[in-house]
Write a sequence for this structure.
């Protein structure tokens, strides 16, 4: 029996080469079937981008809106500084300190317009009634601030905002005394008053306007008796 492998000295090396080729082809086949270990990461990143892009767009849009809003507020502030600031706190010839004009104020002008606020100022902040009994329980001196700067109301049954309160109360702005604007420092005068209360249409709180032309250096004076026993609510529209 003839054995080609034994008769052919190159047969062993040929089988070895064939085996190597077969194993190489097998490895190539396995490589084709083996998943790319980075494929899930690429898919994850693509998914993240798909999800994140709308959020990034919204964030960018919000940032742009904020910048535009900040720019608008700055412009409103500058307009207020140029055209709406008329007074400062200064020494009063009436009592202590008062509101002094730093430039001329024309008749009918409201010298207390707040920047970046609506036609009714910041009344949207609201107020709350504080009773005399509650004032007695405050630190010494705080009750006097409330009595000096806020109008009084008599709380009666059925009156809005008076739930649980009776007797004399004060309508205190929800910002508290630290949020008082400069108009609260106008001193009282009857005959020499050069300011009067007004109530802009649709507003709940009063504002003020000059009753005549006021020169720089003059003190702004108001007849405080307009508040009466029921405070600002007595003022007609």
């Amino acid at each position: 029996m003839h054995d080609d492998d034994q008769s052919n000295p190159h047969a062993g090396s040929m089988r070895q080469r064939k085996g190597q080729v077969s194993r190489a082809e097998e490895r190539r086949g396995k490589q084709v079937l083996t998943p790319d270990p980075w494929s899930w990461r690429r898919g994850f990143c693509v998914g993240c981008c798909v999800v994140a892009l709308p959020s990034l767009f919204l964030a960018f849009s919000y940032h742009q809106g904020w910048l535009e809003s900040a720019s608008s507020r700055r412009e409103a502030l500058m307009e207020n500084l140029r055209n709406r600031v008329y007074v400062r706190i200064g020494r009063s010839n009436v009592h202590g300190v008062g509101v002094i004009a730093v430039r001329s104020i024309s008749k009918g002008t409201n010298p207390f317009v707040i920047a970046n606020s609506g036609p009714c100022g910041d009344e949207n902040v609201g107020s709350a009634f504080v009773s005399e009994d509650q004032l007695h329980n405050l630190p010494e001196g705080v009750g006097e601030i409330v009595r000096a700067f806020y109008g009084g109301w008599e709380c009666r049954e059925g009156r809005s905002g008076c739930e649980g309160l009776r007797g004399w109360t004060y309508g205190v702005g929800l910002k508290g005394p630290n949020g008082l604007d400069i108009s609260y420092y106008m001193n009282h005068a009857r005959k020499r008053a050069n300011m009067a209360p007004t109530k802009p249409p649709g507003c709940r709180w009063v504002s003020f306007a000059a009753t005549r032309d006021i020169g720089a250096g003059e003190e702004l004076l108001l007849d405080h008796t307009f508040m009466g026993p029921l405070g600002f609510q007595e003022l007609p529209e």
Observations:
- Residues 229-237 have pLDDT under 50 and may be disordered.
- The CA atoms of residues 106 and 213 lie 5 Å apart.
- The two ends are 129 Å apart (CA to CA).
